[in-house]
Amino acid sequence: MASASTDVDLSRRAWQRYWQSDRLAACMPDNPAAAAEIERYWKGEFSGLSSGARVLDVATGNGVLLAWAAQSAADRGLALALTGIDAAQIDPLRFVTSEQEALRSVAFHGGVAAERLPFGDAAFDVVVSQFGLEYSDLDVSLSEVERVLAPGGCLRWLAHGASSAVVVESAERVAQMDFLLAQDGPFAAMAFFTRALLQGRRIARARDRLQASLEVARTYCLKNPPSELVQQICGSFMHMAIENQRYHPEDIATLVEENREKMRFYRRRLRDLLAAQLTPERESRVRESLAVSGWRDVVMSPLADSGTGNHLGSVISATRAW
Ligand SMILES: C[S@@+](CC[C@H](N)C(=O)[O-])C[C@H]1O[C@@H](n2cnc3c(N)ncnc32)[C@H](O)[C@@H]1O
């Protein structure tokens, strides 16, 4: 079993790699109308901010919330003081090609944990977080948020709710990746096959093992629809096994290893997401943490897709008491 520190390190590397590609946001619903609903919620929140308001985004990723905040302020002819932190070594200006103007107005700090915010007391008027704070140790990070918020300042946090579509979908995907990456699963059988090709021996035995594993995958797909990921990967393994003479064994081995690595990172991110979801128990812990004297006007409510009624996340808002 992996130790907690190995897991934390894998998580950090997984997110780092994720943010080094040209994407502004994570965990957005596949449905564009639902994603637009989330954007509308945030732009509504940002439209109430006055000029010069100091905003901190916790677990900012590539800064989607702050880009929306900057746009919303620019539309009103105002400027905000925008700061984003993330545990991963982020560098949105380098990796994101969209929203460059908005992102240029933000001070980003990578390698910073929500549990140890490197800011003075009362340094911000607003703290926001989208699918972020819940990834941290909430007992510690919520008191950090309280500390850096000025009296009267507010917290606006959109968290993964246990029944949200993203959470349900992620659980299915993790199960599929667990199947693909199991010790006796299709990735292991394909790696065994490519090793046999590279060594030029025991090829028939390795092909039999691969075929048996792909047959198990076929049965898995029949029992667990929809299994697109399993189908897609196993389809490409099948193709490479049948057509192996058209490829260099080294190229097949490299491709399999690259995909295995990518999948390990992807599974890590989704496992983190599942661990971060606000289950009813975690939700009550949050309520308890915010019920202390430092907070008032605590509201927790679901954000739903107005078209389908699907749960998109849980909105938690609270005000730092005077
Ligand atoms: C689902 S992403 C959300 C990013 C961004 N808010 C968005 O909506 O696109 C979760 C982020 O939380 C960050 N994270 C995880 N644990 C953290 C912690 N303890 N402190 C700060 N950031 C953390 C990860 O590095 C990742 O970038």
Task: Characterize the structure shown.
- The protein is an alpha/beta fold.
- It folds into two domains: 4-164 and 277-320, Rossmann fold, CATH 3.40.50; 166-273.
- It is 52% helix and 17% strand.
- The chain is built from twelve helices and seven strands.
- It has a seven-stranded mixed beta sheet with strand order 3-2-1-4-5-7-6.
- The chain starts with a helix and ends with a strand.
- The model has no long low-confidence stretch (mean pLDDT 94).
- It binds S-adenosylmethionine.
- The site of S-adenosylmethionine has 19 residues, from loops.
Summary tags:
single chain, 322 residues, alpha/beta, Rossmann fold, 2 domains, seven-stranded mixed beta sheet, 12 helices, binds S-adenosylmethionine
Layout of secondary structure:
Elements: H1 4-19, H2 32-46, E1 54-58, H3 64-75, E2 81-86, H4 92-95, H5 100-104, E3 106-110, E4 124-130, H6 138-148, E5 149-159, H7 165-181, H8 186-199, H9 203-223, H10 228-242, H11 249-276, H12 280-290, E6 295-304, E7 311-320
Parallel strand pairs: 1-2, 1-4, 2-3, 4-5
Antiparallel strand pairs: 5-7, 6-7
Bound molecules: S-adenosylmethionine.
Keywords: Methyltransferase, Transferase
GO molecular function, one term: methyltransferase activity
Domain Methyltransferase: 55-153
